[in-house]
Amino acid sequence: MSVLGVRELGLQPYQPVWQAMQDFTNNRTPESADQLWLLQHEAVFTQGQAGKAEHLLLPGNIPVVQADRGGQVTYHGPGQLVAYVLLDVRRLGFGVRELVSRIEQSLIDLLASYGISAAAKADAPGVYVDGAKIASLGLRIRNGRCFHGLALNVDMDLEPFARINPCGYAGLRMTQMRDLIGPLDFAEVSARLRAQLVKHLGYVEQTTLTGGIEAL
Question: Which residue(s) pair with 38 in the sheet?
Answer without folding.
Answer: 8, 83
